[in-house]
Structure formats: C-alpha cells, structure tokens
Specification:
Blueprint lengths: L20 H15 L9 E8 L2 E7 L12 E7 L4 E8 L4 H21 L1
Antiparallel strand pairs: 1-2, 2-3, 3-4
C-alpha cells in the first residue's frame, strides 16, 4: 500500500515506518525547502514530513510578524488526526545538526510509539 503522496510527490504514509534516521533527516530538510513554496494557512506554512497511521509529523514555519522573541520559528510537530491536536513538538531556529538530530529522534520515537500500539 503506497498511501497518499506529500507535496513533494513522495509517499508519506506507513512507508515511513521502515525509514532510517538518514532518510528521516532528508525528509525534514526537503520539507524545510518546500516551505518556501507553500502558501500560508492560518498565518503559518506547514509541510508534512511523514505520516504513521493517524499520526503525522509536520514542519511548521511561523511567519516573521507572528514570531515571539526568543522562541523558535520552525516547529516539528507530531499531529494526531484521531485527537485533532498536536501531541508533541520541538522548536528549531537554525535547523542545524543538533536540531536535526532532535527532530529525527522525535520522529523515531513517534514511529516506535505507533508501532507499539499495533
């Protein structure tokens, strides 16, 4: 089962369950680049990185006029479609190696959590 395609044309559903940390990092970087071409919705831009069943990892950019001093302007969010809410997130300001590592770990932990539920 391929699942639905993301904005980049890459499947984003349960195929992500077999992704390596490097593949997840590449998806995050591609989502970051894709943000520049994504229209704003409710004052922010969001691109799906990967989806595990009802749980979606997405990268959200807060527009400059809505940013609060000292807070990150990029957020990797884990959104639960069943709860209709963000269940976890991590903020990024540079999307440098340490922040990418944290973002990848967030997705890996989410993937494991979803697998444990099934």
């Amino acid at each position: 089962m391929l699942g639905m395609l993301g904005k980049t044309g890459i499947p984003i559903s349960l195929i992500g369950a077999a992704m390596s940390p490097d593949e997840i990092e590449q998806r995050i970087i591609r989502a970051y680049v894709q943000l520049a071409c994504t229209p704003e919705t409710d004052g922010s831009r969001t691109v799906t990185v990967v989806r595990f069943g009802a749980l979606e990892a997405r990268l959200t950019e807060i527009p400059e006029e809505l940013r609060l001093p000292g807070l990150p302007w990029l957020w990797l969010e884990l959104y639960s479609h069943s709860r209709q809410a963000v269940v976890d997130s991590c903020g990024c300001t540079e999307l440098d190696e340490p922040e990418l590592t944290l973002a990848v770990e967030l997705i890996i932990n989410a993937r494991q959590w979803v697998q444990d539920l099934h």
